[in-house]
Specification:
Elements (H helix, E strand, L loop, with lengths): L2 H15 L9 E3 L2 H7 L1 H38 L5 H54 L4 E3 L4 E4 L6 H10 L11
Parallel strand pairs: 1-2
Antiparallel strand pairs: 2-3
Helix pairs in contact: 3-4
């Protein structure tokens, strides 16, 4: 379901229920992309991550140079080597290539983990701040472009839905939709 449809449904539900509320409907929106660009924590995290990326890239390039140098030496020496020496050096080259590939994967995984940790910490802080602002500002709901970030407990109808489901089972349609 796209975000415009979600927002439309939320607004429709809130507007149809607004008669029962004493407080006026108050909706907020948070542009997460902009917040992540402007937050000092996100900027510091990006700088730190970029430094780590550069360091890993340098190490990968150094290892790639070692593989290239070994391969060129092997090609140069190849006519002068015995079959056993050729096989041994080809095995060494293959091992070096596999080690390089493994290092690249591990580096990428490590950087992804670091990025995810930075984002998780910022998102956790952001949710707390949005909830605090929602309560203090008497917002009914605060949204972003993909989800609801804060909902006033007064409009939560989960218990009514659960009670209704418990009293009257919802008919299940067959896979054919008949």
């Amino acid at each position: 379901m796209n975000w415009q449809l979600r927002i439309g449904i939320v607004l429709l539900l809130m507007l149809t229920s607004a008669v029962a509320w004493a407080d006026p409907l108050k909706i907020g929106f948070v542009d997460l992309d902009r917040a992540l660009r402007e937050l000092p924590e996100a900027q510091a995290g990006a700088i730190s991550l970029n430094k780590q990326v550069e360091a890993k890239q340098k190490e990968i390039e150094a290892r790639r140079q070692q593989v290239d140098t070994f391969q060129k030496t092997l090609e140069k020496d190849f006519p002068h080597l015995t079959n056993a020496q050729r096989q041994e050096r080809e095995a060494q080259l293959q091992s070096m290539i596999l080690n390089l590939q493994q290092f690249q994967r591990q580096a990428q995984d490590g950087l992804n983990y670091q990025r995810n940790q930075i984002l998780k910490n910022i998102q956790d802080q952001l949710v707390k701040v949005v909830s605090r602002i929602g309560r203090a500002g008497h917002y009914t709901v605060i949204l972003n472009d993909k989800s609801v970030l804060y909902v006033n407990g007064a409009i939560d109808i989960t218990s009514q839905v659960v009670a209704a489901m418990a009293n009257k089972p919802v008919p299940v349609q067959s896979a054919g939709g008949k």
